[in-house]
């Protein structure tokens, strides 16, 4: 496929390593990016974080045209942004919704994702170390979808 995997991160994830380490761990977003870059291999990776819903939607639109797969940790946008859900509905490739914590073990407000119904798969509760696993899974999904491109 020769298009990069996009990894998009939502609000407050720029504070990883500092924000509620008992829930999110001590790994920083820069460390997560390095793990994902290594896992992406030669396909490459676009790694971004935003606290802005508008910017996230623009990046999803970009990913629709420019990526082979999408890993998205929408963070708080997961639970209220119909605009992000609608943008993700247009995404044509494999997509994993990712959460560092197990949102299903948390308060009820975290139980209803607007993203899950449009994602190919959901990963939650693996901590930051789950990110590179998700990238590798997406590489496999792309290879299965486009076997002649390998």
From TrEMBL:
Protein name: 3-dehydroquinate dehydratase
Role summary: Catalyzes a trans-dehydration via an enolate intermediate.
Domain of life according to the entry: Bacteria
Gene: aroQ
Taxonomic lineage from the root: Bacteria, Pseudomonadati, Pseudomonadota, Alphaproteobacteria, Hyphomicrobiales
Reaction(s) the record says it catalyses: 3-dehydroquinate = 3-dehydroshikimate + H2O
The organism of origin for this protein: Martelella radicis
Metabolic or biological pathway: Metabolic intermediate biosynthesis; chorismate biosynthesis; chorismate from D-erythrose 4-phosphate and phosphoenolpyruvate: step 3/7
Coiled coil: none
Site residues, Transition state stabilizer: 19
Active site as annotated: 24 (proton acceptor), 99 (proton donor)
Pfam families per UniProt: DHquinase_II
Family: Belongs to the type-II 3-dehydroquinase family.
């Amino acid at each position: 496929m020769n298009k990069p995997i996009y990894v998009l991160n939502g609000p407050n994830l720029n504070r990883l390593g500092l924000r509620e380490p008992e829930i999110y761990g001590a790994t920083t977003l820069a460390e997560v990016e390095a793990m994902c870059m290594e896992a992406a291999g030669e396909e490459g990776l676009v790694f971004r974080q935003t606290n802005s819903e508008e910017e996230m939607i623009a990046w999803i639109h970009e990913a629709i045209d420019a990526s082979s797969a999408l890993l998205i940790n929408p963070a708080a946008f997961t639970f209220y942004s119909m605009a992000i859900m609608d943008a993700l509905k247009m995404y044509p490739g494999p997509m994993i919704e990712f959460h560092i914590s197990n949102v299903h073990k948390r308060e009820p407000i975290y139980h209803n994702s607007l993203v899950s119904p449009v994602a190919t798969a959901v990963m939650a509760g693996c901590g930051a170390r789950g990110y590179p696993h998700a990238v590798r899974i997406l590489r496999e999904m792309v290879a299965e979808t486009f076997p002649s491109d390998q």
